[in-house]
């Protein structure tokens, strides 16, 4: 593809790593819940517990990982995280063939993979910003988004066919191999990495761990985005194991039918990914986040009306299409604004804090909805999640509001960007500032950069950190969430929460987990 060639050989290897890992992820769509239902014959509550255990344990263990990742070479961390996930997932088919696979084994693998996901996410955002010029990040991420949605369209039906032919663990093998392929491709990147920042003298580990949370708390825009994406991702992921249990248990759909129901609507993700950037250029990021955020909200409620037979499968596909198109438009605009507001030196910690928040939200919501399903039934629990999801619209950017100027953080010796690119028109005085997505100076040049244009103004806007300008999607973030798709980070942000940041980037614990 032209965008790959124009961005150079090293980016082409990163693109290959993303492509192989995305295909592996979607081939293994909901592999662990399917294994739990088809091979271990567990109930709905224990199916949900897989996601709960992976998310909760990963969040607990990942708290100190943000600063740890910040001060280490990012590419090596990405490769090692891929290799850990390959090794952990490879134990599942081996145990199955030896008739030794247990529910506890699935839980342990889910936890290991989820922790590796968080390491990959924290490292990959900074790595992408160093590899691709800021003015070309939009082009790069548009290509990643398209290949992700193509994989989501092809992978689930193919995975369902593999399960039908070879058994419930058939898709775990290519998923594990996809992580190995990703690691090998990333190792082929030759461009030297920038040296990681040095740990400031006298900085406590507690202060470093909290740095990402402080950056989020200091910006109104980040606070709203955090609340919306974490809650949305948590509710969608809470529904995912219930729909797997309901579709393949109560309603009697085959793995192939279930895969078709997930995969075909994902073609809408290709459309959403293609129109997201032009929509931002025309209407501004705030309008796109608001419109796409509202568009995807009815999808979960529609899942409550899925019934048996072809008509039920059609309802399932329409609800999925709503979720997917809205998320495919929302995610690139969201990822851009998050990078712009994170600060160059705190990107890894902000992404790690975001991922931890997403994991905690998913674990809590999945556990709560598992209890609700046990007390009522899966259909009632899904309908309740659909109603609750409407409340997340409160945290969308209904109107712009000024935020404080950047402040120096003496505890971490970093600059945290707290101003909103939507409300800082008055700061742009240089007539040579280029429009959003245009060519910008390289990171560290110290000049103002143009951010995303607002929906209601034509004036140019700026943010201070050059390294943050223009990114459409950052390495390692979750692919867009779809109900029934476990998220996995690949090399580009893509996992909200990651279909919902499309599944924050999700995610941990359910069989096809990606980093």
From TrEMBL:
The record gives the membrane topology as:
Multi-pass membrane protein
Q: Which Gene3D superfamilies match?
A: MFS general substrate transporter like domains
- Here the segments flagged for biased composition (Polar residues) are 412-431
According to the record, the residues making up region (Disordered) are 399-515
Task: Show the SUPFAM superfamilies listed in the entry.
Answer: MFS general substrate transporter
Main subcellular location: membrane
- Entry keyword set: Cell membrane, Membrane, Transmembrane, Transmembrane helix, Transport
- List membrane-spanning regions: 12-38, 44-65, 103-123, 224-244, 256-275, 287-307, 313-335, 356-375, 381-398
InterPro entries named in the record: MFS_trans_sf, TM_effector
Q: Which Gene Ontology cellular component terms are annotated?
A: plasma membrane
Q: List locations, semicolon-separated.
A: Cell membrane
User: Where is the sequence biased in composition, kind Basic and acidic residues?
Assistant: 490-506
Keyword Metal-binding included in the entry's annotation:
no
Q: What is this protein called?
A: MFS transporter
Organism in which the protein naturally occurs? Actinomadura logoneensis
């Amino acid at each position: 593809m032209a965008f790959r060639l124009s961005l150079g050989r090293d980016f082409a290897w990163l693109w290959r790593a993303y492509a192989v890992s995305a295909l592996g992820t979607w081939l293994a769509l909901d592999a662990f819940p399917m294994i739990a239902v088809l091979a271990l014959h567990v109930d709905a509550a224990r199916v949900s517990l897989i996601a709960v255990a992976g998310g909760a344990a990963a969040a607990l263990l990942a708290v100190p990982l943000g600063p740890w990742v910040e001060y280490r070479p990012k590419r090596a961390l990405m490769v090692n995280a891929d290799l850990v996930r390959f090794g952990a997932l490879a134990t599942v088919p081996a145990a199955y063939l030896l008739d030794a696979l247990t529910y506890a084994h699935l839980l342990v693998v889910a936890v290991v993979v989820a922790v590796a996901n968080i390491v990959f996410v924290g490292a990959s955002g900074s790595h992408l910003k160093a590899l691709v010029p800021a003015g070309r990040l939009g082009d790069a991420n548009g290509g990643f988004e398209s290949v992700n949605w193509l994989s989501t369209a092809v992978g689930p039906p193919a995975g369902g066919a593999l399960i039908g032919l070879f058994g419930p663990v058939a898709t775990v093998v290519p998923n594990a191999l996809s992580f190995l392929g990703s690691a090998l491709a990333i190792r082929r990147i030759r461009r030297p990495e920038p040296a990681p920042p040095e740990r400031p003298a006298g900085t406590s580990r507690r202060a470093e761990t909290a740095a990402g949370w402080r950056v989020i708390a200091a910006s109104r825009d980040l606070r709203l985005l955090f609340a919306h994406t974490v809650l949305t991702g948590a509710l969608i992921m809470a529904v995912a194991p219930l729909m797997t249990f309901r579709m393949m248990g109560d309603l009697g759909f085959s793995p192939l039918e279930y895969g078709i129901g997930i995969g075909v609507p994902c073609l809408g993700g290709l459309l959403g990914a293609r129109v997201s950037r032009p929509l931002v250029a025309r209407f501004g990021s705030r309008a796109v986040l608001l419109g796409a955020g509202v568009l995807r909200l009815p999808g979960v409620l529609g899942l409550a009306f899925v019934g048996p037979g072809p008509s039920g499968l059609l309802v399932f596909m329409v609800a999925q299409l709503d979720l997917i198109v809205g998320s495919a438009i929302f995610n690139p605009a969201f990822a851009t604004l998050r990078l712009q507001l994170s600060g160059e030196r705190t990107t890894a910690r902000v992404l790690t804090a975001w991922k931890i928040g997403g994991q905690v939200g998913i674990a809590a919501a999945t556990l709560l909805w598992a209890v609700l399903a046990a007390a009522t039934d899966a259909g009632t629990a899904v309908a309740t999640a659909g109603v609750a999801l409407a409340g997340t619209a409160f945290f969308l950017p209904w109107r712009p509001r000024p935020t404080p100027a950047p402040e120096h953080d003496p505890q971490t010796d970093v600059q945290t960007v707290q101003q909103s690119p939507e409300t800082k028109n008055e700061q742009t005085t240089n007539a040579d500032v280029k429009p959003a997505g245009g060519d910008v100076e390289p990171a560290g040049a110290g000049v103002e950069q143009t951010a995303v244009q607002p929906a209601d103004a034509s004036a140019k806007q700026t943010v201070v950190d050059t390294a943050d300008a223009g990114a459409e999607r950052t390495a390692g973030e979750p692919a867009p969430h779809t109900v029934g798709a476990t998220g996995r980070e690949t090399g580009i942000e893509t996992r909200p929460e990651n279909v919902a940041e499309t599944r924050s980037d999700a995610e941990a614990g359910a069989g096809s987990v990606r980093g």
